[in-house]
Amino acid sequence: VDDLLAVQQSHIFRREYSRRLRSAIDAQAVFVDALQTSPTLTTTFSPGYFSQSLRQIARVIGARDTLGAMRQTFFVTVGGWDHHDNVIDNQAAMLPAISQGLAEFRDALVELGVFSDVTTFTTSDFGRTLTSNGKGSDHGWGGHHIVMGGAVNGGSIYGDYPILSPASPLDVGRGVYAPTTSVDEYFAELALWFGVAPSDLSTILPNVTNFYSPSVSKPIGFMKN
Question: What's the whole-model pTM score?
Answer without folding.
Answer: 0.90
